[in-house]
Amino acid sequence: QKEVEQDPGPLSVPEGAIVSLNCTYSNSAFQYFMWYRQYSRKGPELLMYTYSSGNKEDGRFTAQVDKSSKYISLFIRDSQPSDSATYLCAMRNDYKLSFGAGTTVTVRA
Amino acid sequence: DAGITQSPRHKVTETGTPVTLRCHQTENHRYMYWYRQDPGHGLRLIHYSYGVKDTDKGEVSDGYSVSRSKTEDFLLTLESATSSQTSVYFCAISAKGQGEGTGELFFGEGSRLTVL
Known about the structure:
Oligomer: heterodimer
Order of helices and strands of chain A: EEEEEEEEEEE
Largest sheet of chain A: 6 strands, mixed
Radius of gyration of chain B: 13 Å
Radius of gyration of chain A: 13 Å
Distance between the termini of chain B: 33 Å
Shape of chain A: globular
Number of strands of chain A: 11
């Protein structure tokens, strides 16, 4: 069983829709939770960073962490074609970083 | 964009040949990493470095070796390439280790390796 599970999709939504992405994990020692965005043929870049449980909002992006359920989410409001990318969740404790497999999202104009 | 250059960006080679991928950074970051990315597996750490001549293994290090003789360069070597090493390889850098601060990684654009 993988330490971090992420549905690979693909996910296709119309422009303006809300995109909902999520990951589950098994290691209760994870304390830091991140979302990376990866455009086609590019390297990943950090999108959101959250410590412990709770919500964090940054513009159209909201990250949620529920440590009791070992479940994290990323919501994209008013999605745009420029949001089309692969989104990777990542999480770590003090010494180990683990990535999900990534979910590919296409926003149709 | 973080100053990270990977070379070559694309390479096709045959089974049994040696291959070296190079990562060059201009950010003077202490930590450098090599990951491979495969469908269904996400990013998996091969090796990392925490300083010049200081390296350690990641979760998928078998068949790979690394060297770091200068702060700015981190080399990944496949001594005898196999088809299972066909993948996209990403170099990443960070100013702090994974136990410090956000541990944010900055990635290069990747090197696509095909082993026939």
